[in-house]
Amino acid sequence: MMRDDDHAARRPGARQRRAGPCSRQRGDPRIGSVLFRVAAGPRTGFGHLQRALSLSRALHVPPVMSIRGSSATLRAARRLGVRVVDGSSARNILLRQRPRILIIDDREARATAPWRRAARGLGVPIVSIHDLGIGFGDADLIVDGSLTAQAPAGVVARVLIGTSYAILGRTARAGPRRPAAGESVVIALGGGRRRGLAVRLARALRVRRPAAEVLVAGGFSATGRQRGPAGIRWIRPDGLSDALRQASVAIVGGGVTLYESCALGVPTVGIAVVASQVPTVTAFAARGAIIGGGLASGRGDSPAIVVTRVVGEVVNLLQDGATRRRLASAAASLVDRRGAERVATAIRRLWP
Prior knowledge:
Layout: E1 2-3, E2 34-39, H1 47-59, E3 64-68, H2 71-79, E4 83-84, H3 90-97, E5 101-105, H4 109-122, E6 126-130, E7 141-144, E8 158-161, E9 184-188, H5 194-208, E10 213-217, E11 232-235, H6 240-246, E12 249-253, H7 256-263, E13 268-272, H8 278-286, E14 291-295, H9 303-319, H10 321-334, H11 339-348
Parallel strand pairs: 1-8, 2-3, 2-5, 3-4, 5-6, 6-7, 7-8, 9-10, 9-12, 10-11, 12-13, 13-14
């Protein structure tokens, strides 16, 4: 097993080419056809798709994806500029697309196994993206940008481990943070049933801080047309980065958005919206990068307790500039914005 140290060559202050939108980029001569296979949807989350979009920009290739998700998920992906491909089987899709590299971002090992087998049979190199070591499978390059990730035992593939390889969404291309003049709180817990908790948090915040602007991310398939209570504004997924850049405080789940919020240096309260996010939220809180808000599902606290605790933490942060600055500094030191570029460099070395 090898552990890549590409990030050591990236010195602070070094000049880096900034990637524009995929439609305006020239293709990298070393990168031809790249196919992404990702899972996405209200339950699975938006992070896998966002990472694929970010990595396509870093590789200077169009976002061509096969997506494990509902028809609504596929429509939402197309709205973000993804060219969605389909077919009766992994092998048929690979034969039709003829990719030079297959990039998989899906935590379900059973769902990815046919893709790995088909790629191996066709001689297509595999890059496998993971969180918390979940769903490891056959690959030529394994990437896990989690704070608590550990290299998988017995794996002979090249492995990139740790937050230096965290592949972020649009925050990777965002400029410096510009907090709003007034109090602004962003709540981004994901879609589906998590919207209910987000709305309860937003309403409780408006009671405690009526002058604060509260923005709620609507989730993966949101269209931005929802109407909420007075003083609460819904934001679309493609507007989350700008909202975070201006936020005084953010309330986020323990997925990719937590890493993005930290990379931007936003004072953050993290909530584990599913049990698998507990290690991430706990680890960031233990390092002084966020305030931990506990588990909000399953065996966690009741929604009422979570709302009371989290709103209390947010109000304290809004009143305590020193703590906000301490959290922002610790968070930014753990996660920078260059993970996608480091991973892209490693992928180029796989080029046949």
